[in-house]
Write a structure and sequence with these properties.
The protein contains 14 helices and 7 strands. By secondary structure, the chain is of the alpha/beta class. It has 3 domains: 46 residues, no CATH class; 209 residues, Rossmann fold; 59 residues, no CATH class. It has a 7-stranded parallel sheet, sandwiched between helices. It is globular and about 70 Å long. It starts with 7 loop residues before the first helix and ends with a helix.
Length: 329
């Protein structure tokens, strides 16, 4: 099976095709970003931020909250608008065997895969603590570069992912279920910090009123302009998806008018640049520790001939030399 474009000329050609609407080329380029390595770096060098050209919505929530069903109904609402196009990056837990995405979301959303207005791609979290691997952020930039006006990112679970999705998207939707009142209190700080819209899905289940009451009570201390909207949906019946789409548009208009969108975009760039630097350093450190000369220092430490602090300084010096050599050759 072909690994897709790898040379600069191949990448350039595929990027041209993806920008012209070729879904196959777009999929191949995302695969390049997922694999990483020199081809991924070469592709990253071709991507440029295009201010105002796209908008990103993050959708997160506890497993079993019905996020994927909700997203599927939301996609249907979005493409009912004339001329609207939307891409979905569905972040799945990584397979313990292949490290690839478990493609459940593709199965659940197959009704939209034939639509020319929708592009769906499952991506692996690869065990990343925040639930969003660097490749997901890179894929979002690729979609922006190729002219997709709206991208949805559906993430796995709730936890550190809350902060991760907030740093990568413009509007954050947190999906809850009735009876989640205790978790609302337990996760109050994280949820209140990142959510722009709360959705109580499965609103036909018992505990709806108590959950809404607990949630609105937790939100009451926030200034009105920062208070997330609370919506109710029954995704399996398609109920509430239209109101959710309208809430997304309203939130976009509000943060654009206030200047908050610009501030969020700068924070996104800072976070993604930091993540890129962290990833490069992690790769270099891994290669450094694979070198034979490290074994001698490890043995010296274990025999008491070298202290840990000095060894650490020596390793940093070696890392600096490695980086300096790569930038001058």
């Amino acid at each position: 099976m072909s690994e897709g474009p790898t040379t600069p000329d191949d990448l350039g050609l595929q990027l041209e095709r993806a920008s012209a609407g070729d879904r196959g080329a777009l999929a191949r380029l995302i695969s390049v970003l997922e694999r990483g390595g020199s081809a991924s770096t070469s592709l990253e060098r071709r991507l440029r931020v295009r201010p105002g050209s796209s908008y990103t919505v993050g959708i997160t929530g506890a497993p079993g909250a019905g996020k994927s069903t909700l997203v599927s109904t939301l996609l249907g609402e979005i493409i009912e608008e004339p001329g609207q196009q939307v891409a979905l990056l569905a972040v799945d837990p990584s397979s313990p065997l292949s490290r690839g995405a478990l493609l459940g979301d593709r199965v659940r959303m197959q009704a939209h895969t034939a639509s020319p207005e929708v592009f769906i791609r499952s991506m692996a979290s690869r065990g990343h603590l925040g639930g969003l691997a660097m490749a997901t952020r890179s894929a979002r930039r690729l979609l922006e570069h190729c002219g997709w006006p709206l991208t949805l990112i559906e993430t796995v679970g709730v936890g550190q992912v809350e902060l991760d999705v907030a740093s990568a998207t413009d509007t954050v939707i947190v999906v809850l279920n009735p009876g989640w009142g205790d978790e609302v209190q337990a996760n109050k700080a994280g949820l209140m910090e990142v959510a722009d819209i709360f959705v109580i899905n499965k609103a036909d289940k018992a505990g709806l009123e108590a959950t809404r009451r607990d949630l609105e009570g937790a939100l009451a201390s926030l200034p009105p302009e920062r208070r997330p909207q609370v919506l109710e949906t029954i995704a399996t019946e398609g109920k509430g998806a239209g109101a959710l789409w309208q809430a997304i548009k309203d939130h976009r208009a509000a943060i654009t008018a206030s200047g908050e969108l610009g501030r969020r975009r700068l924070a996104q760039v800072r976070s993604e640049l930091r993540g890129m630097v962290d990833a490069v350093l992690a790769d270099r450190v891994q290669r450094l520790f694979a070198a034979e000369e490290v074994d001698g220092r490890i043995l010296a430490i274990s025999e008491g001939r070298l202290d840990m602090a000095e060894a650490g300084e020596q390793m940093l010096a070696l890392l600096y030399d490695q980086v300096n050599h790569s930038t001058t050759t």
